């Protein structure tokens, strides 16, 4: 497994990755994430690759609200789910991230209702900090903030 920056050569592969219908509301559409990264400073996008196939997507940034680095978006395409790739990619991203940014913490926020993701992140050492609520556009979100000491 490896991580590659999203660029003009692979952005379409990223756009074609989708989630299962029962995951709606848990992660933003990849198109939205790519547009945000194109027009907002400090957002970093990565494709998650298994050999030459993009199987997932990560967006991370430095978030002043923590303050600290945050993995803002993480997804594995629905056709690749249920094979352990999400957990493997999360673990490998932690190592990649630590080596690239030389920092001691990484934050994430997970929908309160996404018990599968909360369990997976807890299993690799993320601890829950606090619940947060916010509105973005016309949607309202309730999430749990988590942190991992690197």
What strand line-up does the widest sheet have? 1-2-3-4
Give the structural class: alpha+beta
Question: How helix-rich are the residues, as a percent range?
Answer: 25-40%
Strand content: 35-45%
Instruction: Give the helices and strands as they follow along the chain.
Output: EHHEEEHEHEE
Uncertain runs: none
Mind telling me the C-alpha Rg? 14 Å
Distance between the termini: 20 Å
Globular, elongated, flat, extended or rod-shaped: what is the shape? Answer: globular
What is the average of the pLDDT values? 93
Number of helical stretches of at least 4 residues: 4
Biggest β-sheet, characterized?
4 strands, antiparallel
Number of strands: 7
Explain this structure.
There is one protein chain. By secondary structure, the protein is of the alpha+beta class. The protein is built from four helices and seven strands. The protein has helices at 11-16, 30-39, 85-101, 115-123, and strands at residues 2-5, 43-50, 53-63, 68-76, 105-111, 127-136, 139-149. The strands form two sheets. Strands 1-2-3-4 form a four-stranded antiparallel β-sheet, with helices on both faces. It starts with a strand and ends with a strand. The mean pLDDT is 93.
